[in-house]
Design a protein that fits this description.
This protein is an alpha+beta fold. Helices cover 30% and strands 41% of the residues.
Length: 158
């Protein structure tokens, strides 16, 4: 994995919640918060969902998605293709108390499935500094000096 791909993986793994945007059956864009279950970062991200949900039906018709992650001064926008995966063993590995709070029946429930997103590309932005105070100081300094704020930005292909 090269350095930009690693940066994308690090931001996703430190953020965990994505806003998944997809196209609805009537052609509108809509977004749902989704808890990332796994990101192996050859470009694959996994989510758990219910087979009979509108979002799954929409993804079966038009699998194009965008995943947006934001947190701690870092952002990732990942474009890719979603597929529905029936894999009870993998569901069992990924299932947690958090998942139980949102979905019923556990990994044995045939209505619980995986949404696998294979990334085509991602763009990330990473502000300098690990704390909010450092990031704020950098923004104030750039504003006082009339300079653009420092930070990393790159487009990554998968």
């Amino acid at each position: 994995m090269d350095e930009p791909q690693q940066k994308v993986a690090d931001i996703i793994n430190s953020t965990t919640i994505a806003m998944m945007t997809h196209v609805t059956s009537d052609g509108r864009l809509t977004a749902h918060p989704m808890a990332t279950q796994d990101a192996d970062f050859t470009g694959t991200v996994l989510f758990i969902a219910e087979r009979d949900s509108d979002k799954v039906r929409d993804l079966e018709s038009d699998p194009r998605v965008n995943l947006a992650y934001s947190g701690n001064g870092s952002w990732v926008s990942l474009a890719g293709t979603a597929s529905i995966v029936d894999d009870e063993a993998r569901l069992r590995d990924l299932w947690s108390t958090f998942t139980d709070a949102w979905l019923t029946g556990g990994p044995e429930n045939p209505n619980n499935i995986l949404i696998e997103v294979q990334a085509d590309s991602a763009e990330y932005w990473d502000a300098p500094g690990s704390s909010k105070t450092v990031r704020l100081a950098n923004l104030v300094t750039s504003a006082v000096k009339g300079e653009r704020a420092e930070g990393d930005n790159d487009v990554v292909d998968f």
